[in-house]
Amino acid sequence: MHTLKVELANRSYPIHIGKNLLTDANMILPYLKRKHVAIVTNTTVAPLYLDKLSNALANAGVTVIPIILPDGEAYKNTETLNTIYDVLLANRCERSTTLIALGGGVIGDLTGYAAATYLRGVPFIQIPTTLLSQVDSSVGGKTGINHPLGKNMIGAFYQPQLVLADIDTLQTLPAREYSAGVAEVIKYGLIRDAEFFEWLEQNISALMSLDEDVVSEAIYRSCHNKAEVVARDEHENGERALLNLGHTFGHAIENAMGYGVWLHGEAVAAGTMLAADLSRRMKWLRDEDISRVKAIFEAANLPTDAPKLGAGKYLDLMGLDKKVENGKIRLVLQQAIGKSVITSDYDVAKLHETLSTLN
Fold first, then answer.
1. Annotated catalytic, 286?
2. Closest by Cα among 27, 105, 113, 94 to 265
3. Residue 283, phi-psi category: left (phi > 0), alpha (psi -120 to 50), beta (remainder)
4. Which of 10, 79, 120, 283 is the catalytic position?
5. Any catalytic annotation for residue 52?
6. Are residues 32 and 122 in the same domain?
7. Catalytic residue among 73, 177, 184, 217
8. Whether residue 29 is found in the same domain as residue 165
9. Residue 138 contacts residue 163 (beta carbons within 8 Å)
């Protein structure tokens, strides 16, 4: 088992990465205020893992309240959030009740936001079951829901007590969902860890075939990178925004296509290629750099061409991004593989050149 810590003073917490963690109640018990939890999951994950987790906790004397939500990004909204509140209120859950998110990024974001707001804050634990949530969304305390006008526009920074990443759950993950998670793994190499990117290039085949040692190492190195950034910039006032490479373009794709039509990681991959193209036009990336980025996304079975929505549509949707400042879209661009910058100081004409290929 790999273990690392997100260092946030009195809100620090561990991330455990390994096998058979889901059924080990002793990993969870020390983080419960009392033996009373609500497990939030969805209709896809519940048949696979809810009983395993519930039984392990029940055998340790924990009262478990299950909350099973519909599956999909389309349900990351206020209506589904209210479903969580309804069950918590009906069961008279108190501030000592811990919410456990058992699922992917949507479940983690919904549960975290419910925990941040129910009774003005109750503890929660992340047990991510997808690669994307294990390497990204479960770490760092970003929680929230979507709005019809923009993705993740309503939410809160609220840290979990514990993250348990059980790599056994990846065995039941559909191939497309797994590839979407690999997009976020690749992102860490691109933004700040050239050595990790080179390691991924060498090990991408083993990663895609779910070699346990390679998967565990990839998750650990991804979480290590994110934990370092979050520790320095918890509320995304500066460096943490670098973690959004490809996301401003990607969120526009998700919004325009309809949430869930393109998976988040797929949209991030295509968005990263757009950011790379603009970086090349800025004379920061070379043609061979673009080729390397495209090749690794293709090896992970990810899209490298963004949908042709039209430059105007992209600019309109990108204008809704959380990183917009003083009316100008700030973008994460690459100065080299392993080195990124967030900037609004780019040539707008070159952005239009990049987007004009999508008319």
1. no
2. 105
3. left
4. 120
5. no
6. yes
7. 184
8. yes
9. yes
Contact 311, 210 (CB under 8 A): no
Domain holding 71: CATH number?
Answer: 3.40.50.1970
- 154 and 144 Cβ atoms separated by less than 8 Å: yes
User: Residues 6 or more apart from 115 whose CB is under 8 A from it?
Assistant: 99, 121, 122, 123, 124, 143, 158
Q: In the chain, where does DSSP find H-type helix?
A: 51-59, 78-90, 105-117, 131-132, 175-192, 194-208, 212-232, 247-257, 264-281, 287-299, 311-318, 348-356
pLDDT tens readout for residues 291-309: 999 999 999 999 999 999 9
For the chain, the helix, strand and coil percentages under 3-state DSSP, each to the nearest 5: 50, 20, 30
Q: Which residues of 280-291 are buried (b: 16+ CB within 10 A; e: fewer)?
A: bbbebbeeebbe
Q: How far apart are the first and last CA of the chain?
A: 48
Annotation says 264 is catalytic: yes
Number of folded domains in the chain? 2
236 is catalytic: yes
Q: Has 79 been annotated as catalytic?
A: no
Q: Is 21 helix (H, G, I), strand (E, B) or coil?
A: coil
Q: Is 359 helix (H, G, I), strand (E, B) or coil?
A: coil
Are 117 and 61 members of one domain? yes
pLDDT band at residue 324 under the 50/70/90 scheme: confident
- 62 and 112, same domain (yes or no): yes
Amino acid at 167: I
Catalytic, 226? Answer yes
- The domain of 300 spans 175-356
Task: Assess whether 187 and 120 both reside in one domain.
Answer: no
Respond yes or no: is residue 55 known to be catalytic: no
Are 31 and 68 part of one and the same domain? Answer: yes
168-222 pLDDT, tens digit per residue, is: 999 999 999 999 999 999 999 999 999 999 999 999 999 999 999 999 999 999 9
Rounded Cα–Cα distance for residues 291 and 269 (Å)? 14
Reply yes or no on whether 36 is catalytic: no
Residue 204 amino acid letter: I
Among residues 151, 192, 240, 330, which one is catalytic?
240
Domain boundary among 111, 143, 171: 171
Verify whether residue 76 is a known catalytic residue.
no
